[in-house]
Fold this sequence. Notes:
- Helices cover 34% and strands 17% of the residues.
- By secondary structure, it is of the alpha/beta class.
- The chain has two domains: 63 residues, Alpha-Beta Plaits (2-Layer Sandwich); 253 residues, Alpha-Beta Barrel (TIM Barrel), CATH 3.20.20.
- Strand 7, helix 3 and strand 8 form a beta-alpha-beta unit.
- Helix 3 runs parallel beside helix 11.
- The structure holds phosphoenolpyruvate and manganese (II) ion (MN).
Amino acid sequence: MIIITNPGITQDQLDHIREQVEARGMRTRITRGDKQTIIGCIGDDDVLREMALHRLPGVQSVVPVMKPYKLASRQFSACLTEVRVGDAPDQVIGGNAIAVIAGPCSVENRDMLRETALSVRDAGAIMLRGGAFKPRTSPYSFQGLREEGLRFLAEARATTGLPVVTEVMDPRDLPMIEKYADCLQVGTRNMHNFSLLKEVGRSSLPVLLKRGFSATIYDLIMSAEYILNEGNSNVILCERGIRTFDNSARYTLDLSAVPILKSKTHLPVIVDPTHALGLREFVPQMSLAAVAAGADALMIEVHDSPEQAKSDGNQALTPEIFAELVPRLRGVAAAIGREM
Ligand code: PEP
Ligand code: MN
């Protein structure tokens, strides 16, 4: 249930409504938009139906939320969520400006990370990505540098001013990762790991949640709901390709997920064209298409010598190709009335 309040509602009226709702065992979440304040109520809607809420001073209307997801639903929030990932004014995902997140698949060593971080920053990225804990198909493949990799990420942040996003696979690693990272990534293989989702939901860091490669859009929103339900309201949704009958690329990039997700939720939606295709040559075209489709940010893998990469070398852009791509993305952004 959501309570839409009168434009001129006073703080006392707002507090009174909230007290009334919470006294009946419901939880409330208040969001203030430019024109209106919305009180989202979570719990047993039948209790509220018996309350004649519409008679309380300051209430304009009471609307049931029919969807199984509440906190993630577009109805539930008076404004679109913008997730702050760093202190600089442009270090935000969501809003009118489109952001670019870039960096290597894995953190391999201090020098490569530093060089890549400097080049992606100079090309226009606002956040650095890099895995220190890698979810690999084979247990014999490079698994990441763990805490050493996190230290290199923090050093790269100090050098470049870029906030860092890195994957957490195991709730036991979370306290360590929180010491170094600015944003937590939950990867495609863990989108259904509900214990992990609850744990990152209790973190004070924003969460970049990737769509499971066999997950529906509904599944993705429900996973976001797990994180929001624990109190973390800074969730970024990421389309990164799904498994379909077609096998000409690694996955199929479902760009229709972008407008669909944006119609259903208030959360920022980003696209990772790199993992979707797994093929470097097509990453620029799909990045341009993702901007046109309305993505709030792109996440792109960049490696200074992809042929020597310890993971995902086939799909990483070189710093030069990345630097050529960014102005073209700006052109598409401008064409659809967005900044970059
Ligand atoms: C990644 O971004 O490093 C990654 C492993 O992506 P995904 O979970 O989408 O495969
Ligand atoms: Mn990768």
